[in-house]
Design goal:
The structure holds two protein chains of two kinds.
Chain A (H helix, E strand, L loop, with lengths): L1 H19 L4 H22 L25 H31 L23
Helix pairs in contact in A: 1-2, 2-3
Chain B lengths: L1 H6 L4 H15 L4 H29 L2 E4 L10 E4 L1 H24 L2 H5 L2 H17 L3 H19 L5 H32 L4 H9 L5 H18 L7 H5 L5 H26 L7 H21 L4 H22 L2 H32 L10 H4 L1 H15 L5 H15 L3 H27 L14 H19 L2 H15 L2 H8 L7 E4 L9 E4 L3
Antiparallel strand pairs in B: 1-2, 3-4
Helix pairs in contact in B: 2-3, 2-6, 3-4, 4-6, 4-12, 4-15, 4-20, 6-7, 6-12, 7-8, 7-12, 8-10, 9-22, 10-12, 12-14, 12-15, 13-14, 13-19, 14-15, 14-18, 14-19, 15-17, 15-18, 15-20, 15-21, 17-19, 17-20, 18-19, 18-20
Classes of the chains: A mainly alpha, B mainly alpha.
Chain lengths: 125, 523
């Protein structure tokens, strides 16, 4: 099971990085989302996988009996998913606005902040 | 009541701005109320930072556990001398930039939510400085990122959209790397509390997972802080924002990355012997050199200053790379000095724009004649940044370079000195072009600069002069802060308290598939 999930994490990250290397903004953003989900899965695995051992504390006790599933990674992933979703939504809107007003979905043509025909190094001194 | 406030000193620098941000957001349509809430919030935050600083200086490391969860299980907040200093300087800078913003921020930027975003960003910066939990640090980083993205694109210009997209994608990538590092670290150690991790990692055998995690931390924080091969997003985006926002970004945001690096690589990972030091030395030298070279070819004041942020970050990393108490003290001093000076230079750039109507140095000029006060106020941070005595930058550079000589890294000291000369070149370029030379074109008169702009510039300049003329208490503070960073026992005991010893035991068996076992050890 661990091996299968590890391979899945690898697949997510490979795809994510491949898409992020693209010069097209929308592919870049999809790549970021995939990479984020790969990392979420990795957090899940790093809490160790186990079956049929819910982390429930019996009444009257302070600690559960025997080995239990680790509940913490799920809380961490939930946080990361929520943040990742908000970021992705914001970035999509940003990408759309950039596409509308810069008329560009290609990073090579997005040179407004750093104009290419800028002045050469000062030679006057 | 007073006791309650003092007891929870570590919480207020986060609680105050987040309350103010929520209040400001509630009055979305009333800009006058927002402005009032914002100013009151900033002043209260400054008071809270001062309270924290005094408490930490008197009683040592302050720590609080949220929700009454005992230390390694819940989220801890902890403030040692370094955190307290960073929060203090954030408070000072926030008030100064907030006052400057009253004169600079346009109506439509306020309509787009400047005040809530600004306060929210300060919340996240203070949260990052104070948290004692590595996953919580990730959450503060994300809050910082999303508020920063909002602030960057506030003017909705085309250049801002372009700059923000690059900023957002690269910084989101950096936080993802950080999260990856946290995931691997959690898998290897089973803890997220930084003090607990420090205890665990001290007795853990080095492994590939830990090395990978450390490298990912360095890369993730490196993008945030603007280290050498990863800094290109910074000069591509910072200059597009409105100058008030650029100033607070320049002062604080990259320094949060630097702070996180200091925290992780002093408390948790050893720099010595893991190959990290060699990498850091090269990165530090590259950061200093390439930043200053980048600045040399620019004509836009804001872009010159942006590249100089990168170059100055190199000096701080230099202190961490050498890792002697003296070097870390120098770096702490450098961070405090740099935050004040760099933000001040951006504020001066805003005043230059107000006076001449342009950020382009070739088109401006003559300010020394028309606005001698601004010229004098520019010289203080400019000379301090270049590191000339008797201002704060001289002592900061002196400490760091002295430490690198003593640490046996003579060539690094040489690079640092050479970069200092080139910094002076950039500063004199701004001086000659904007202040000294006769203005080109017909417009001979400069517009007046409002008092609300000059006041924060003068106040920050006064702090720079104070640090410069009496550096002794600041250096002593930095040395004490470095001492607690190098020997983090006080921090660990303050956070973990009783549970640092026997009591609740966390057994973690990576060999079997069994997860964390929590058991009460024998009393």
């Amino acid at each position: 099971m661990d091996v299968a999930i590890a391979l899945l994490v690898g697949a997510f990250m490979t795809l994510g990085i491949f898409l992020m290397l693209s010069r097209s903004v929308i592919r870049m953003l999809l790549g970021l989302a995939l990479l984020g989900n790969g990392i979420n899965l990795l957090i899940f695995v790093s809490g160790r996988l186990s079956r049929e051992a819910p982390p429930i504390v019996p009444p009257g006790a302070y600690v559960p009996e025997g080995a239990i599933a680790n509940p913490l990674p799920q809380a961490l992933i939930l946080t990361a998913i929520v943040i990742g979703f908000a970021m992705f939504a914001y970035l999509l809107i940003l990408g759309m606005r950039a596409y509308q007003s810069l008329d560009a979905d290609h990073t090579d043509t997005m040179r407004l902040a750093e104009p290419e025909d800028g002045p050469r190094p000062p030679l006057s001194y | 009541m007073i006791d309650f406030i003092i007891e929870h000193a570590v919480v207020w620098p986060v609680a105050v701005p987040i309350t103010a941000a929520a209040l400001a957001a509630m009055f979305w349509l009333r800009q006058d109320i927002q402005r009032l809430v914002s100013m009151v919030g900033l002043v209260l935050m400054l008071g809270a930072s001062l309270l924290l600083l005094v408490t930490v200086m008197q009683d040592g490391v302050q720590a609080r556990q949220f929700g009454s969860w005992a230390a390694p299980f819940g989220i801890s907040f902890a403030a040692d001398l370094l955190s307290a200093a960073m929060v203090m300087i954030t408070g000072v800078l926030a008030v100064a930039v907030g006052v400057f913003g009253l004169a600079d921020i346009r109506k439509r930027e306020e309509h787009s939510g400047f005040h809530p975003l600004f306060l929210g960003m300060l919340t996240s910066v203070n949260g990052a400085f104070l948290t004692g939990d590595i996953f919580n640090l990730y959450v503060w980083f994300e809050i910082m990122l999303i508020t920063a993205m909002g602030l960057l694109v506030l003017g909705k210009t085309r250049a801002q959209l372009d700059g923000t997209l690059k900023y957002a994608v690269l910084n989101l990538f950096s936080t993802l790397l950080f999260l990856l590092a946290v995931a691997i670290l959690y898998g290897a150690t089973g803890s997220l509390n930084m003090a607990d991790l420090s205890r665990i990692l001290a007795t853990t055998e080095p492994s590939a997972a830990l090395t990978l995690s450390a490298a990912l931390f360095l890369a993730g924080f490196g993008i945030k802080a603007g280290y050498f091969p990863l800094f290109f997003w910074l000069p591509a985006s910072y200059h597009t924002a409105s100058i008030t926002i650029s100033a607070i970004f320049a002062g604080l945001l990259t320094k949060v990355g630097v702070y996180a690096c200091f925290r992780v690589f002093t408390l948790m990972f050893e720099i010595e012997g893991s190959g990290l030091r060699e990498a850091m030395v090269v990165i530090a030298a590259g950061t200093m050199l390439f930043g200053v070279f980048g600045a040399a070819v620019q004509w836009d004041v804001r872009r010159i200053l942006s590249f100089h942020i990168v170059s100055q970050i190199g000096y701080m990393l230099l202190g961490l790379a050498i890792a002697t108490p003296l070097a870390i003290a120098g770096a702490v001093f450098y961070i405090v000095h740099h935050i004040i000076v760099k933000a001040n230079l951006f504020l001066v750039a805003g005043a230059i724009y107000r006076a001449t109507g342009t950020y382009d140095l070739r088109k401006s000029g003559g300010l020394m004649r028309t606005n001698p006060l601004l010229a004098a106020l520019f010289l203080i941070p400019a000379i301090s940044l270049a590191g000339l005595p008797p201002l704060s930058g001289f002592w900061a550079k002196f400490l760091v370079i002295d430490a690198s000589f003593q640490g046996g890294e003579n060539w690094l000291a040489a690079v640092a000195l050479f970069v200092g000369v080139l910094t002076l070149y950039s500063m004199s370029k701004i001086w000659i072009e904007a202040f000294w030379k006769a203005p080109p074109g017909v417009r001979q008169t400069a517009r007046p600069v409002p008092v609300l702009m000059l006041l924060p510039i003068a106040a920050l300049g006064a702090i720079t002069v104070t640090i410069g003329l009496s550096p002794e208490p600041f250096i002593q503070y930095a040395q004490a802060a470095a001492e607690t960073l190098v020997n983090p026992e006080a921090y660990i005991v303050a956070v973990l308290g009783e549970s640092a010893g026997p009591g609740v035991e966390i057994a973690f068996d990576p060999a079997t598939a069994s997860p964390i076992i929590i058991e009460e050890s024998v009393q």
